[in-house]
Every structure is written in structure tokens, then in C-alpha cells.
Write a structure and sequence with these properties.
Length: 211
């Protein structure tokens, strides 16, 4: 019978480090070759591990793809924490959230360009992407706004739809950047200013300022 590790925390740390090592290699390979042309052998070589070792952490190339998107999602939508964000005004939280997302996404456009077409085109990947990334993000923001509604800080007749408008705005900006829109690409160089502009449109709309 195998002896259990006396240091489970160390084992967990090693697992996390190896997983991160493989994901970083996959990022480089997908960005360089595209998802379709990349192989698990390519990724294992870039990670300096055996291909069999890679499969201990990810069951398939599709699992690697989902892992990459989840990893990117954690670096953006998880900061700042939505519960802690209740101490901020909605405008301050929205601006900071957008600024963080914009700043993190900017260096990853090559990766997004490599993987998003596969997610959109593959009927097996779409529900994984939606169920593990999009739906939790929508649910978290919906709950946050519901709390603010109870506290009288917002007046939204349809919170679920408002949340989707927020996400669609960010995704739309990403798409315009990928398509090469010069105005969006120039604005993206200053994430804070772009976030403030987006927050103004989302919160104030196009109505004239009150006199």
C-alpha cells in the first residue's frame, strides 16, 4: 500500500505549479500555431514534460482550451471581489472592474484570436465555456446587483438583462479590437480612461446632464 504524503499542501502546490506550467506552454503554442494546428505533443514539448504527463492534468486539448479560458477569466472577473465591492459605489466598482478586465485582456488578444473561433464553432466546447465561465460570471454579477437593488442603490426593472448588457459591452469591445478598429485599439492603450468612458455610457446613457 502506498504511503500517503506527509505534506499534502506541498503536493497540492506542486500540482498547481505543474498545471500552470502546462497552461503557460499551451498559451504560447496556441498563440503561435492556432488551436487547430497545435498538438498536445507540441504543448508537452514547450512545457518540457512528457506527453503522458500532460494527460495527467488535462484529459484532452479541449480541456486545455477550457483551462486557459478559465485561467484568463480568473485574472479578470475575479478582481475586485464582488462582495468586497459592495463597499464601493456602483460607479467606482464598475470602473475598476472594467479597468482590470481591459488591462488583463490587452496582452492576451493573440491567444483570444487563436481560441475563440474554436469555442464558437465547436458545439461541444460552447456549453463547457458557457457553463463553466459565462454562467457563473452572470450569476455573480446578478446577485451583486440584486443586493444593491435591495439597498436602494440601483433601480433596474430587469437585472438579468442589465447584466447581459454589461457583458455584451465588454465582449463587443473585445471583438472590435480583434477586428482592428483603430479607435478602440487606441483607446485600449489607456484602460482607465476607456473604463471610465464605458462606465459613463452604461450608467448615464446618452441623456443630457441634469441642470
Amino acid at each position: 500500500m502506498a504511503r500517503k504524503s506527509a505534506l499534502p499542501a506541498l503536493d497540492e502546490m506542486r500540482t498547481d505549479l505543474r498545471r500552470k506550467q502546462i497552461l503557460e506552454a499551451a498559451t504560447r503554442v496556441f498563440a503561435r500555431k492556432g488551436y487547430h494546428h497545435a498538438t498536445t505533443k507540441d504543448i508537452a514539448h514547450a512545457a518540457n514534460v512528457a506527453e503522458g504527463t500532460l494527460y495527467l492534468y488535462f484529459a484532452s486539448k479541449a480541456e486545455l482550451l477550457v483551462g486557459l479560458v478559465e485561467d484568463l477569466d480568473r485574472t479578470t472577473t475575479q478582481t475586485p471581489d464582488l462582495n468586497a465591492g459592495l463597499a464601493l459605489s456602483l460607479r467606482a466598482l464598475l470602473t475598476r472592474r472594467l479597468e482590470d478586465d481591459l488591462a488583463q485582456l490587452g496582452p492576451n488578444f493573440d491567444l483570444l484570436l487563436a481560441i475563440l473561433p474554436e469555442v464558437l464553432a465547436d458545439p461541444a466546447l460552447r456549453p463547457q465555456f458557457s457553463g463553466r465561465i459565462v454562467e457563473p460570471a452572470l450569476a455573480g454579477l446578478t446577485e451583486h446587483l440584486q443586493i444593491r437593488q435591495i439597498r436602494g442603490e440601483v433601480n433596474l426593472p430587469d437585472i438579468p438583462m442589465a447584466v447581459r448588457v454589461f457583458m455584451a459591452t465588454l465582449l463587443g469591445m473585445e471583438m472590435l479590437h480583434i477586428l482592428g478598429d483603430k479607435i478602440v485599439r487606441k483607446a485600449w492603450r489607456n484602460p482607465r480612461q476607456l473604463a471610465e468612458s464605458m462606465a459613463q455610457v452604461l450608467l448615464d446613457g446618452i441623456q443630457p446632464a441634469a441642470r
